[in-house]
Write a structure and sequence with these properties.
By secondary structure, the protein is of the alpha/beta class. Helix content is 37%, strand content 20%. The protein has a single domain, classed as 3-Layer(aba) Sandwich (Rossmann fold). A hairpin with a 5-residue loop joins strand 3 and strand 4.
């Protein structure tokens, strides 16, 4: 497909970029649909602070205990005999946002992507936002690449301020000649206790498929998204204040979606999220000016 090509790298990291675990769950879902091969992983000693991102211990299939260290790993999809040679294929880069040496980290991983002849990158992220769970999940799609914005009808980011590792990787990739797109899902901030958010994960995968032309299997995600929404409906039904607040968010969202609304609404929400340092807004209290 014009713009991103046939060898597309999908990036998703745990941490600041991953509200509701929507982005990391999207990458994990993709890995379950193909027999991916690990082709590169960073040395965790160089990039992670183990007091901040601790290793985990788990039991193996044989019952032995093993340590699992934080990582960042590049995965190659299998080539399926009989498949269309021109069909887009999705590589994956998954892991944990590093604690240090971001420039070296990004350079190392972009070099690995270049060795795989990656033709385009899609970075997946998710943010807590003032949006209702009852409406379709908003996806901000933006790029600093002029050609991609024209070809794929993307937004031009105008945010200035602190960023996460996705922005750093995107900037380094662009400098290396790999065109990059960022997709950010808006997750309702009041559903923090209902993570993961399969509705947001599904929205990211749908937009990824539309943008790349890749065939993305949805599996049980549509059913899980409906169950997630129903569970929040049930919780809100017992909270009159929350129900009223959700109605306010619905009215705002319906205004955004009206034909007269500006196309900048989602971009503005994305910039508000970044300025908050990745923290979602809080449910309005008695002294909140939104009341």
């Amino acid at each position: 497909m014009d713009g991103l090509g046939q060898r597309v790298l999908v990036i998703a990291f745990d941490g600041w970029n991953d509200a509701g675990e929507a982005a990391s769950a999207a990458a994990a879902h993709l890995r379950t649909t193909r027999d991916y091969e690990q082709v590169y992983t960073v040395d965790p000693e160089l990039y992670f602070d183990y007091q901040y991102t601790r290793p985990h211990v788990r039991l193996t299939a044989e019952g032995a205990r093993e340590l699992v260290w934080p990582d960042a790993t590049l995965w190659r999809p299998p080539y399926l005999p009989g498949s269309d040679a021109e069909a887009p294929r999705l590589w994956l880069l998954t892991g944990v946002e590093p604690a240090r040496a971001w420039q070296a980290f990004a350079a190392e991983l972009v070099d690995a992507a270049l060795s795989e002849d990656i033709t385009g990158i899609v970075a997946l992220g998710s943010m807590m936002s003032d949006v209702p769970h009852t409406r379709p999940i908003s996806i901000f799609a933006g790029s600093d690449n002029d050609a991609l914005r024209t070809t794929l009808s993307l937004e031009r980011p105008t945010y200035e301020g602190p960023v996460g590792i996705l922005s750093v990787l995107g900037a380094v990739a662009e400098e290396a000649g790999i065109p990059t797109v960022a997709l950010w899902a808006s997750v309702p901030h009041y559903v923090a206790g209902h993570t993961p958010s399969p509705k947001a994960t599904l929205a990211l995968l749908d937009r990824l498929s539309d943008m790349t032309g890749a065939d993305v299997e949805r599996g049980q995600l549509p059913a899980e998204a409906l169950a997630w929404e129903a569970s929040i409906d049930a919780a809100a039904a017992d909270d009159e204040e929350m129900t009223e607040y959700i109605h306010q968010l619905e009215a705002t969202r319906d205004t955004w979606d009206s034909p007269e609304a500006s196309g900048d609404a989602i971009a503005q929400e994305f910039e508000k999220y970044l300025r908050r340092g990745g923290e979602g807004p809080q449910k309005p209290g008695r002294d909140d000016p939104r009341r």
